[in-house]
Amino acid sequence: MKKWSFALLSLMLIAVLAACGNNKDSDSGADNEAGAPRTVELKVGASPTPHAEILESIKPELEAQGIRLQVVTFNDYVQPNQQLADKQLDANFFQHQPYLDTENKERGFNLVTVTPVHVEPFAGYSKKIKSLDELQDGAKVAIPNDPSNGGRALLLLAKEGIITLKDNTNIASTIQDITANPKNLDIIELDAAMMPRQLDEADLVFINANYALEANLNPEKDSLLIEDLQGNPYANILVAREDNKDADAIKKLAAALNSEAVKTFIKERYQGAVEPAF
């Protein structure tokens, strides 16, 4: 009887050990089957339009490569870089190189360009006048208050001969660099995200294309003055950190953003309001 009980206990122990072994195999999931790759999570910050829309368009392609793309949208130009620097994001896509250079210098970031993706023409709009000839003495003009985009607005005004700057080619120009203002324009500086709201207040408002598109404005059709796209130095860029810019997932994201599919998506969806930069 004791021998039988011992044998029975031995069989039960073997069965339990076998079951544990089987459970361990099942917990390993698909990663252990035929060398299937693990899914990599990639968290990217973006402005809602057009950046997030472009990123959403490449999700299926990246999913097929084992990358699950999470797009986090921001309505400001401050948090995407801060969160990337703090490693809450893996990359961001919302800015141009001059803006990134200013951010790195003034805020001590070490963020790097991965690849240019598209160009958004910066432009001036108005609900109060139909042409620049109607701009009256003392007219109110709203420009973004960040250095690079504020400089873009001033350069456009200088190009049209409305003001004169110390250097009409200097992107870092500020209102202190205005040497002539014959129309005595009242130039106010506000956060870029607030620009569309100024259309009911100011006579001329300079709006970044992403905010213009969100306000149902087409830079090509609705603006009074606009940057040239040829040779435009303000291509919007995919940005990462120095420590992850060469990661395989970031490289695949960059390749997807520079694909023919994205070029077609941009041209068909935005009809000239946004243009590929590759």
UniProtKB/TrEMBL annotation:
InterPro entries cross-referenced by the UniProt entry: Lipoprotein_NlpA
Main localization category: membrane
Keyword field: Lipoprotein, Membrane, Palmitate, Signal
Signal peptide: 1-18
Keyword set includes Mitochondrion: no
UniProt xrefs under PROSITE patterns: PROKAR_LIPOPROTEIN
Family matches, as SUPFAM superfamilies: Periplasmic binding protein-like II
Subcellular location: Membrane
Name of a matching Pfam family: Lipoprotein_9
Membrane association type: Lipid-anchor
Similarity-based family: Belongs to the nlpA lipoprotein family.
Protein name: Lipoprotein
Naturally occurring in which organism (per UniProt): Paenibacillus illinoisensis
